[in-house]
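Format notes (please read before filing issues)

Several people have asked whether sequences and structure tokens are stored in separate files. They are not. Every record keeps both together, in the order shown below: the sequence lines, then the token lines. Line labels are part of the format and must not be stripped during preprocessing.
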Amino acid sequence: MASGVFDILHPGHVFFLEEAKKLGDELVVVVARDSTARKLKHQPIMNEEIRAKMVAALKPVDIVVLGHEDDMFKTVEEIKPDIIALGYDQVFNENYIIGECLKRGLNIKVVRLQKFSDSDLNGTRKIIGKILSAYAFQKEIEYFEKKGDEK
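Then the structure lines:
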């Protein structure tokens, strides 16, 4: 099992899901609800249904489910995975997850995966930043071109 917001799919997401798939026979991906994404990360750009469809289209993914809004461990109880794969930057504490699972009668291994570093576009915020920078640069060029035409 792997989980995330998966707002703007990028190479880091693909790497994360490919590595998670290697840990078992079937990969179930939990896509965070819009409300959960707002609480834990940011206002999603794409809604939860679109994000779930995008993730479902990826080759390593076998099943996609939307997470529960009130208790993330309800999804774990329903799916009963053998392994939970965490991304390198996910804020969850491995020991906390193991402890919560044990409280619910689940003996689940938690694996923190390594960072994908083959791209400078391995994060949603990095992609947004690059787009904004390119847009600002283009606006500067247009401004100076317009100033040149006025002379």
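For reference, the curators noted about this record: The mean pLDDT is 88. The chain has one domain: 2-119.
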